[in-house]
Amino acid sequence: MRLGQCKRIIVNVASDVSQNHVFSFAAALSYYFVLAFFPALIALATTVGYLPIPNLFNTIVEAMARVMPPQSTGLLLRVAADVTSRNHPALLSFGLLGVLWTCSSGFATMIEALNVAYNVPETRSALKTRLLAVALTFLIGILVIIAFTFIILGPLLGNFLAARIGLSWVFGVTWPILRHVFAGIFIVLAVEALYFLAPDIKHSFGSSLPGAIFSVIGWMLLSDGLSLYFQRFAHLNRTYGVLGGGVALLVWLYWSSFVTLLGAELNSEILQLRGDAGLVLKQPTAPEARSKAAITTG
């Protein structure tokens, strides 16, 4: 890709951020996901209590603390301590239902935002869109859980493979790096699945890979930048008091949603640059809908 084409993509993405209301969609997504966060925590705390792995929930919380702002980590630990001290089985059903409803609502909003990013209308029925949002909740949730499994249970898995299969010392040296690589691959696959399945267009699986890689790398850099900002400059606890952790969590989810949508805008511009001027809707219903789906490189 030439320098002039890269410049054109950057300019067009910056223009689309304003025209496609990316900031507004990011705010809506952060609202839904912050509502889903604590029911998910309740469901997770109750579920891992039945697994024969000691201190698993605390290990998961420590792994989440690596990417979350410090103030949010403190809030997470307080909520986790309160939830695990009660240990009521009814919390599991409540948590799962809460996560399913709020996450599917968030993914329904994400579907709408990705359609706007690709400049296509939504031709699928409301029921089909909601079912797709529920399916995305499970699919992306499973991929993220697998990614965290490599990070959290990586040492145990490495010891198991080395003991049972008899792998050499080279495996012991490279496994700490490999498990983080595998975790990153599954995170990219989760974002890639979102870009491939959510918008109402037919396109190849690999065509949205650049945006997925950009989104994951941008999210990692953003998380580190926000943690540094909250530690050195923001001091949210002084401004918001006990609400500081919740505000930090909301800000982190907001910018994480923004980076995800930015990756979709990048994919849309790359498709236009390649000359894919006739993106086909997954379920065209009328000639006027098909005409709206045509994206021109101009």
Distance between the termini: 18 Å
Unreliable stretches covering 5 or more consecutive residues: 286-298
- Content-based structural category: mainly alpha
Q: In total, how many domains does the architecture comprise?
A: 1
Share in helix: over 70%
Description:
The model is unreliable at 286-298 (pLDDT under 50). It contains twelve helices and no strands. Helix 1 packs across helix 11, helix 2 (22-48) packs across helix 11 and helix 4 crosses helix 11. The protein has helices at residues 3-19, 22-48, 56-64, 70-86, 90-117, 126-152, 154-165, 169-197, 209-234, 236-240, 244-273, 287-293. Helix content is 79%, strand content 0%. The two termini are 18 Å apart. The chain has one domain. The protein is globular. The chain is mainly alpha-helical and 298 residues long.
Please outline the helices and strands.
Elements: H1 3-19, H2 22-48, H3 56-64, H4 70-86, H5 90-117, H6 126-152, H7 154-165, H8 169-197, H9 209-234, H10 236-240, H11 244-273, H12 287-293
How would you concisely characterize the structure shown here?
With 298 residues, the chain is an all-alpha fold. Helices cover 79% and strands 0% of the residues.
